[in-house]
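Internal ticket #5521
Category: modeling
Description: The requester needs a full-assembly model to guide mutagenesis choices. All entity lines are attached below as received. Residue total reported by intake: 762.
Assigned to: D.W.
Attached entities:
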Amino acid sequence: MQATSVVHRHFLGGDAPTFSSLRPKPIPTTTTSFAIRMSLREDAPSLAVVGVTGAVGQEFLSVLSDRSFPYRSIKMLASKRSAGKKLTFEDNEYVVEELTADSFNGVNIALFSAGGSISKEFGPIAANCGSVVVDNSSAFRMDDGVPLVIPEVNPDAMSHIKLGSGKGALIANPNCSTIICLMAVTPLHQRSKVLRMVVSTYQAASGAGAAAMEELELQTREVLKGKKPTCKIFKQQYAFNLFSHNAPVLSNGYNEEEMKLVKETRKIWNDKDVKVTATCIRVPVMRAHAESVNLQFANPLDEDEAREILKKAPGVVVIDDRVVNNFPTPLEVSNKDDVAVGRIRRDVSQDGNYGLDIFICGDQIRKGAALNAVQIAEMLL
Amino acid sequence: MQATSVVHRHFLGGDAPTFSSLRPKPIPTTTTSFAIRMSLREDAPSLAVVGVTGAVGQEFLSVLSDRSFPYRSIKMLASKRSAGKKLTFEDNEYVVEELTADSFNGVNIALFSAGGSISKEFGPIAANCGSVVVDNSSAFRMDDGVPLVIPEVNPDAMSHIKLGSGKGALIANPNCSTIICLMAVTPLHQRSKVLRMVVSTYQAASGAGAAAMEELELQTREVLKGKKPTCKIFKQQYAFNLFSHNAPVLSNGYNEEEMKLVKETRKIWNDKDVKVTATCIRVPVMRAHAESVNLQFANPLDEDEAREILKKAPGVVVIDDRVVNNFPTPLEVSNKDDVAVGRIRRDVSQDGNYGLDIFICGDQIRKGAALNAVQIAEMLL
């Protein structure tokens, strides 16, 4: 069947996002002094955001606000370097505080995105203080006893963790590529078990942080002027180029980013037998990842049924118009919550309906990081 | 084994190509009158270049010159629109002539790159005039009796075609993605039969012609200034974005570019059973394609042996340094003849040594089009 279906949910339609809107929102600074928020909800949890000045940290605040996440108080935590900066959040002004071992007293939920080493040091401290930590780093993802959660996929993995029990806990946010991939693949997997998955990624600058996004922009301006590009974050030209993901390469030849897809999929699906291989590539795109995914199923699943399943899947939008060649793009999903999937077709290299090829795009900072973490926090309420 | 091998053949090392060098070379124009080349070789074939003003047409001339291709005369042919333009080639001046049915009298070898409809109309006319046509379009690729040739891969397919026999012929140049893929995969296939191949491409602007390269540059300048990007060649923003290949989508859900990889591989390998699937994506890169390729073999082939095979393969360079994360990039292969391959590793999703993942980059205009065609012409000499 010729697929002509296009589902334009709330997030689609209208012009593409402007270039400047792709950047992490700068922290609104203020010269007025610290003020207490008048609209605090006494019955709501007290929050802390660790790494609040980073790209994901800033997106944590956007998402909390967009989703009207209730809170009694919120602590803005960062490194000593950023301490003292002032920022405005929901009409209240805050001073960024230095992250220390004492930061978590009275904190119910701590959202961490300050890199693996900060999480390793301060995550357990926060949990020992009774905070439930939702950690965006890879520090604890593969640890037994730490749930690795995509709320639409495996909410039950964290059902034993309760706020207000006085007991702290660690919950890990999966890697961005894993979240975006499994948002689209899991609904199919629930219908017909996925035996093997071959993933090739097209990853945005944002995965390497705000400075990498700035470097891509700077390099592009330089290259267009015929200048040698500035290479600080990446060791090579990124503008008008692409390269194998910059994560360290392991002894099996996979880089760490690729092995996250392999291992996290097994843990999230609680399926140690699922076969996954991945090739992760950095492309000169600002903030949304794309993934080409080839699937091998245990039982037949035809493309029409797959499309119908995906249309109904929470957090997923289908963009799959073959007639006008309209499929997901990173730009279209930028700043959006939903993961977009298209190019849904029977794999001609497999027998019958045992294989599908699909193409997925998702905002790396939002569903790939901050949104997923805030959704985890919402499940605690 | 930790791979630390880096083979830097002639084409590697030194600075990355400058941005301006990535563009198709503009035709050197001249105000002096048409002149006869003094160094003509009377024993050499007379050539014609059809579509000489296009990106690939210009590259035909560069490659002919770089490789000191011998010729008695050379006709510069293009559409009526370009007829009358003057250009300099190897210190001689030429006037671009309008392509007509009379263009091929006395022409021994005609290199075509003017689109499929021009090839369909004028290819058979040229062949009937006794010319051997090397056609870069898709017009005849799948026709029985028309060899589809990558000289390093299947030279024998054209061994029955002789210059000077008085009989014309058509020879097809494969699609750029197919050439780049099979340059790296065939040497492995010759050692252990490839049963199945899953390809995801990262394709440059050049595949859509010089105007697409200009549009990518223009759009990037516009987007950086906060302007709405000009979309003429592609219907959507290309700068800092990527999208499913713009080729028409067929009823099976694959686009034509993807099906070329599927069908051309079968024909070039003369193996109707090889299973291929592909997802073709356009990325904001100027002139070299990249491909993530997952391979499934009939017999075990370990990664060390694969690497050794590829190091010895003609027209292939291995860039595979895991320690310093140095792998092929489109920028590095731009303006170069060789196809680069790296990220050579055992596929962890397959048993034993029956699978490999590799990453390939090749210049789309050069080996993906003009160089391969000129190499075919060389085999006629």
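Resolution: model delivered.
Comment from assignee: The radius of gyration of chain A is 21 Å.
Ticket closed.
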